[in-house]
Amino acid sequence: MRAMTVTKENLHNALQKYFGFDNFKGKQEAIIKSVLNGKDTFVIMPTGGGKSLCYQLPALMLDGTALIISPLIALMKNQVDSIRGYSQNDEVAHFLNSSLTKAQMKLVKQDISDSKTKLLFIAPETLTKDENIEFFKQVDISFVAVDEAHCISEWGHDFRPEYRRIRAMLDAIGEDIPVVALTATATPKVQSDIVKNLGMEGHNTFISSFNRENLYYEVRPKGKKEQTIKQIIQVIKDMPGQSGIIYVQSRKSAEEIAKALSVNDIKAAPYHAGLDAKTRSNTQDNFLMEEVDVIVATIAFGMGIDKPDVRFVIHYDIPKSIENYYQETGRAGRDGLEGRCIAFYAYKDILKLEKFLRDKPVAEREMSAQLMQEVMAYAEATSCRRRFLLHYFGEQFDEDNCSKMCDNCRHPKEKVEVKNEMAIALKAVLQLDENYGIKPLINFVRGKDSKEVKDFGFNQKEFFGAGKEKDSTFWSSVFRQAVLNGLVRKDVESYGLLKMNDKGRAFLEHPHSFKIPIDHNYEKEAVEIEESAKGGAAVLDEALMKMLRDLRRREAKKHNVPPFVIFQDPSLEDMATQYPISMDDMANISGVSKGKAIRYGRPFIQMIKEYVEENEIERPSDLVVKQVANKSKVKINIIQGIDRKVPLEDLAETNQLSMEELMDELYSIVTSGTKVNIDYYIDDNVDEYSREDIVDYFMGAATDSLDDAYRELKDDDITMEEIQLVRIKFLSDMAN
Ligand SMILES: [Zn+2]
Question: Considering the entire predicted model, what is its pTM?
Answer without folding.
Answer: 0.65
